[in-house]
Amino acid sequence: MPEYGRAVQKMVDHAVTIEDRAERQCCANTIIAVMGNMYPQLRDMPDFKHKLWDHLAVMADFKLDIDYPYEVAGPEALHAVPQRIEYPKGNIRYRHYGRCVEEMMKKACAMPDGEERNQLLHLIAAQMKKEYILWNKESVEDSKIVEDIKEYSDGAICLNEEKLNLGIYHAPANPYGNNGKNKKNKKKY
After folding, report:
1. If DSSP states are collapsed to H, E and C, what string results for the chain?
2. Which terminal residue of the chain, N or C, has fewer Cβ atoms less than 10 Å from its own Cβ?
3. CB-based burial of residue 51 (10 Å sphere; 0-12 exposed, 13-18 middle, 19+ buried)?
């Protein structure tokens, strides 16, 4: 482990070669003290000592035969493959709106009529307009957003286009870059 350096690695290698078990245990305790002194700011961390003993076992290739004060993970835990995370499956009706808009529309459909639902629908419509503009790089009429909301809700939600008033949104020139400005073109004073 490079964070402890070559000197600590040499001490661990020496501890593995010690034949007397009591002396080997004493040497391991000294190595742990040295490793702890290298990073005093981490002493307040939970399980700091446990982590040090795990690092000692790794540095010794799990060949150090001592009485560990904590249960040390074996080499199989070191090379364990993490569990695969399942990606949500299913089709998205309009990819430019994304799955979050679909989920928000489902929640809005389940809500009772009222001011809270109207505010949520207005926020969803504004988000849909922003997403549409980012995807297509052109302006979109509020009527298109109203139609898409009606389709998402299977006709259950019919918004009034005049009351909606989403305003005018413009797509940024380059949402992921520096808007075409190069550093070498800047004037130096």
Report:
1. CCCCHHHHHHHHHHHHHCCCHHHHHHHHHHHHHHHHHHCHHHCCCCCHHHHHHHHHHHHCCCCCCCCCCCCCCCHHHHCCCCCCCCCCCCCCCCCCCHHHHHHHHHHHHHCCCCHHHHHHHHHHHHHHHHHHHHHHCCCCCHHHHHHHHHHHCCCCCCCCHHHHCCCCCCCCCCCCCCCCCCHHHCCCC
2. C
3. middle
161-176 tens-digit pLDDT:
776 777 665 555 555 5
Question: Model pTM?
Answer: 0.46
Residues 164 and 122 sit within 8 Å (Cβ to Cβ): yes
Candidates 98, 154, 157; CA nearest to 122 is 157
Please name which of 156, 153, 125, 158 lies closest in space to residue 140, comparing C-alpha atoms.
125
Q: Residue 117 contacts by C-beta under 8 Å, 6 or more apart in sequence?
A: 108, 111
Whether the pLDDT of residue 101 is over 90: the answer is: no
CA-nearest of 109, 131, 114, 118 to 163 is: 118
